[in-house]
Amino acid sequence: MIPDHVVEEVRARADIVDVVGEVVALKKAGREYKANCPFHEERTPSFYVVPEKGFYKCFGCGKSGDVFSFVMERHGMDFVEAVKHVAARAGVEVREVGRAQHEDDPHRPLYEINGFAREWFRDQLLDERTGAHARAYLEGRGISAGAAERFGLGFAPAEWRALRDAAAKHGLDEDTMIEVGLLGRSERRPEPYDRFRGRIIFPIEDLGGRVIAFGGRIIGSDPEAPKYLNSPETPIYHKGLNLYGLSWAKHHIRKEEAALLVEGYLDVVSLAAQGFDNVVAPLGTALTDDQAKLLSRYCTRVLLLFDSDAAGLKATFRAGDVLLEAGMHPAVVTLPPGEDPDTVVRAEEGGRALAAYLEQAVDVLDRKLQILDEKGYFGSIERTRAAVDRLLPTLRAAADPALRDIYVRNVADRTGVRRETLEAEMRRARAGQGVGRAGDVGPPRRGVRDPLPKPGAERKLLQVLVRGAEWVERAGELISPQDFDDPYHRAIFEALLDDPELRAPPASMDPVAARRFEEILSDPEELAHGMDLFTKSVNRIRGTRLYRRIEELQDQIESAVSSDEKRDLASRKSGLATELRALDPNLLGHRGPRRREKNSS
Description:
By secondary structure, this protein is of the alpha+beta class.
């Protein structure tokens, strides 16, 4: 037999429209789909599929059911065969177990304890005295009692053992509660204590609606307490594989054919309270490849609704590239300075104001071009080259061939860089001969000789950056992740750009990069003259990039056919050499690029 939780996961992940549409020509009719019934002869369509509720119904012959019953009826399968058939389409691995194994599911205690905790937190929120402050807070954020009920919001009192004592009365195992992150231990408090205290509680569900973790937002005034506290990863919870709100939003996303991606729990609930039901959020980390693939099961268009500050903008474009790699079409919603989705929907215009911003969403590449233009990146050769460096990751990320073709054409038109050159850069990166997102790196191009090794400069710069967020912001204006040769240094730099205050490796970071990051964070070396070290490190990294570009131009000069093209390339090379000397006169003098300009005129 197949365990109940596996059946529910398959049911939750299954796209009934896709399964039925495999054998029936469905046509959209409002929120539903209709067709001639596959179970009896008819001329007028009376067979309907309702994706929001996951069932089908024929008003002619009366047949109805869910995705499994359709497969059983149409293909003559039994229940187990039907579940396996649907699971194969949904990408869920199904293993049959004996009855004894099914009844002894090793993860059942984790789900049961999380289920108990959700109800207990909910009771505390509804308690007339205990939850009064929390209810007032939610009402002040525009979250009605109905919205709180829909998302199962709760409240953790500011007590050290209230949940622990309540669980003990029901005989729940403390070690298991520690495993799922509801209780904690420390050197100062060897006795188990409630981890969530004085917080609004957001239950996190899997696609089948089971609680797998919790997030908690502080509502007190403790300046030392983190704003958000989240469950740790457990056997049933991997934050990089789940999206907050998807269990509620998946049918609405399919119906709207688009998802709204916001930064956190409160944004999801606030927007849903205003009628935006197709909204989800990552779980405390940058968007992962697995989360993008999960979302792609329900739509291809995603509107990115992150904060309008610098950190929000970096997270926006990072998420945009991840979505593009999953074959999706991301667009950026630009909010006024200082605003976020929650503040917009709570303003006087409420949902109407946000709807207006959604209508003005701009494709992620177009938004990048707009920002680079606003910052004057197309005013000089070197700044234009830097702009290309920032645009290449997005070009490479686009998995949709048609969209990638449009992107390349637009970047070529805006930067003046030939389409063939852009495509060569993209091919070089894919072949492992250039740099891109973290982990995409290979040996340097043959014939290119670095003036000096860079790993030392890269590490020194990272040592400076972890000393303060202001250094990260400054570095982000001068260099990009693509300027780092070492893929692990690049991954660390990208993580710091996403969160300048980061002081621990994100869970999604490559293990080797995470180990390097921890070494940098714990390095006891005193860094005197921080500004001087920052400038020298950045100049070395920028200088090496310029040096390589000069070498590339020399290769193009040697292969150019026309005199005009050779003169144009030589002029560009001369301009870059001037900029390189301005950065550090010793770089060209140390081991200059090949001198073969005699063929360039």
